[in-house]
């Protein structure tokens, strides 16, 4: 009953973690609002969720890397919904390259989506949540935001930025009764890696450790409208990131071979 009737806005909802968050939220009585670039996929997901739960999610096309589009879409949503209870900033992508191979246009796009778009979406709903003194902002970051590894310099930089923004926002938002949560999964079985690692080598190397998107989604939905600071998955990787903060040199030495598995 905690989520029944609450509007849950999800970016990057056309597949992967975002789609499964919408599924799980609807099963718990929430009213998902699906945002992504592929309107066709959103339409299919909305119809499927309605068939399974009786709840038909709203949906709209959104490229979070387009700031004007973010403002227009959220302005329309706020007028239609009147309340946004939960915002899940899930949209994002990564590309794994050694520093000498970084494409600067690709770098700019990664920051535009992973960082600037996330902040823009947050700003679109935050004043409304402040006024109501209620709400929850959930930012999907990554374990890569805690431990940077070879070939992930730009992607890790974007997720470090997300965690920094999230930690600051949490302190500010607490004054108004707004919850802020960072979600830090390790590798997840989604199409993320079709762009991040076209060779497929990384997936082959870490496939036995990859998380199921359904499992991540359940943890995210379980945290909604609760004062959960962070969700970290899997546990052993969370332990590794904690150890890294205490003894970075030791971890880099011991885990060096594993870090080069991309």
UniProtKB/TrEMBL annotation:
One GO MF term attached to the UniProt entry: oxidoreductase activity
| Superkingdom of this protein's organism | Bacteria
Q: Which UniProt keywords apply?
A: Oxidoreductase
One Pfam family linked to the record? adh_short
Gene3D superfamilies associated with the record: NAD(P)-binding Rossmann-like Domain (3.40.50.720)
Indicate the enzyme's highest-level EC class.
Answer: oxidoreductase
Enzyme Commission code(s) on record = 1.-.-.-
Q: Does the keyword Amino-acid biosynthesis apply?
A: no
The UniProt family comment states: Belongs to the short-chain dehydrogenases/reductases (SDR) family.
From the Swiss-Prot or TrEMBL record, give the protein name. Answer: Oxidoreductase
Q: What is the lineage of its organism?
A: Bacteria, Bacillati, Bacillota, Bacilli, Bacillales
